[in-house]
Each structure stands twice: as structure tokens, then as C-alpha cells.
Specification:
With about 230 residues, the chain is an alpha/beta fold. It has one domain (about 30-230): Uracil-DNA glycosylase-like domain (Uracil-DNA Glycosylase, subunit E). Helices cover about 40% and strands about 15% of the residues. It contains 9 helices and 6 strands, in the order H-H-E-E-H-H-E-H-E-H-H-E-E-H-H. The protein has a 6-stranded mixed sheet with strand order 1-3-2-4-6-5. The longest helix is centred in the middle third of the chain and has 18 residues, at about 125-145. The protein binds iron/sulfur cluster. The site of iron/sulfur cluster (SF4) has 14 residues, from helix 5. Iron/sulfur cluster binds near residues 43, 48, 51, 58 and 116.
Length: about 230
């Protein structure tokens, strides 16, 4: 496929015709097979936005393709860019701790970012980068069809809510939204909470040994989000 074209194919399984009915076959694929096709054939060695020039690795996503919980962050950082895996390093360890405090293992959830390549210097994602890359994330959600999505941080929250408004994180947390993908018949409960990097930064501002209120806030957000699994 043309790497400079829009990521149209990422939105759906392969088309019939020269693919010899591949699209029809894809309907029966497992979530893992769909993700692998998306990773290897649609994302590939993507050059759709300028982040391709500065990245070390594309950071596609990791976890159980059949996960009931999907965590979605903003973009890879330096550790993720180097290793090609989302949420590694200090932020990744904190996310893993949160998952384990919820009684799960990291391998049981699926973790991805809105952007698959690192913005230089961890700057905020540009609108054009989000526009070019977010179809890949939407295709991941279509493949996995989780029971609940947790957005980590403000950008992931605004994108997944589908708002044009410039919302603060405090306006999004402690509420239940719906991730809406009408084309795929998906309406998934969506919660927004702080990114682990923010929580770690807050910790650094506290006197040694003092309990971090941001950490407790995230845990209560996550427990609220996961109630849907028990209903
Ligand atoms: S950020 Fe997304 S759209 Fe941009 S080059 Fe990377 S994979 Fe492609």
C-alpha cells in the first residue's frame, strides 16, 4: 500500500478483489490476527507524519488481544521509543503497579498510545499527527473490543471522548463517557484519569515519605472504571 496515503485500510479489514476475498476471511480472524495484520501491513514502516523522521521505533501496543480493559496514553516517551513498547520506564512501572493493585496482571490488559511515534522532547502531539495516527488506534479498539477504556492523560481523554473543546483533566475525570465508533457498532464505557508521568512528577514535589494524593485519586478512578466488569 502507498505509505504516504491516508491510513484508510487501518479502519477496516482488507478489501476484496486483488486480495482474493481476504476481507471476507478477515471477518473470522481472531483479535490477535487482526492486530497483527494492522501492525505489520497497515502501520508497517509508517511515514504518514513527520514523527517518522525522528522516531527510533514505532510503538504499536502490547497486551492481550482479548483484553477486557484497554489503557490508552498520549504518545511514547524516550524509553518507549528506544524499546518499541508502550509504558515502560518509570511511568510504565507505575501503570503496572496500578494494574496489579486492581487484582490483574499487565499481560491481561491491552496498552497503547494515541500516537505510535515519539514527539521530539516529549512535546505535545500536533493536531496533524493525531489526525494521521489516530485511525490506527481506532482500528486497535475495533479489533480488541474491550469492555472498558481508560484514557491516561488529557490528550488521550479529549481524543477518545471526541470533543473539540480544550478540556482540563479535572473536567474529564470522575465521569463516565462513551467511546463511540458507530461504523463498528461500538459504544464502550470510557473513563479518564491522570497519566502516570504526572503522578510521578507530583510525588517529586512532596516531602519524602508523604502519601501522594494523586496516586490515591488515580486508584479511585480506576476502581470506578472497572466496576463495569462486575456488572
Ligand atoms: S505517529 Fe503515527 S502516523 Fe505518524 S509516522 Fe508514526 S505511526 Fe505514522
Amino acid at each position: 500500500m502507498d505509505p504516504s496515503g491516508p491510513p484508510r485500510a487501518a479502519e477496516s479489514p482488507p478489501r476484496a478483489g486483488s486480495d482474493g476475498g481476504l476481507r471476507a476471511q478477515a471477518q473470522a480472524w481472531t483479535p490477535g490476527q487482526k492486530l497483527e495484520y494492522l501492525r505489520s501491513r497497515n502501520v508497517g514502516d509508517c511515514t504518514r507524519c513527520k514523527l517518522a523522521k525522528t522516531r527510533t521505533n514505532i510503538v504499536f501496543g502490547v497486551g492481550d488481544p482479548n483484553a477486557r480493559v484497554m489503557f490508552i496514553g498520549e504518545a511514547p516517551g524516550a524509553d518507549e521509543d528506544r524499546r518499541g513498547e508502550p509504558f515502560v520506564g518509570a511511568a510504565g512501572r507505575r501503570l503496572t503497579q496500578w494494574i496489579e493493585r486492581l487484582g490483574m496482571k499487565r499481560e491481561q490488559v491491552y496498552i497503547a498510545n494515541v500516537l505510535k511515534c515519539r514527539p521530539p522532547g516529549n512535546r505535545d502531539p500536533a493536531a496533524e499527527e493525531i489526525e494521521k495516527c489516530s485511525p490506527f488506534l481506532r482500528a486497535q479498539v475495533r479489533a480488541i473490543r474491550p469492555a472498558v477504556i481508560v484514557a491516561l492523560g488529557r490528550y488521550a481523554g479529549m481524543l477518545l471522548i471526541g470533543t473539540d473543546q480544550d478540556l482540563k483533566l479535572a473536567q474529564m475525570r470522575n465521569r463516565r463517557f462513551t467511546y463511540d465508533d458507530a461504523g463498528a457498532g461500538l459504544q464502550i464505557p470510557l473513563h479518564v484519569t491522570y497519566h502516570p508521568s504526572y503522578v510521578i512528577r507530583r510525588e517529586g514535589e512532596l516531602p519524602p515519605g508523604q502519601r501522594n494524593p494523586a496516586d490515591d485519586t488515580v486508584m479511585s478512578d480506576l476502581e470506578r472504571a472497572l466496576r463495569v466488569l462486575r456488572s
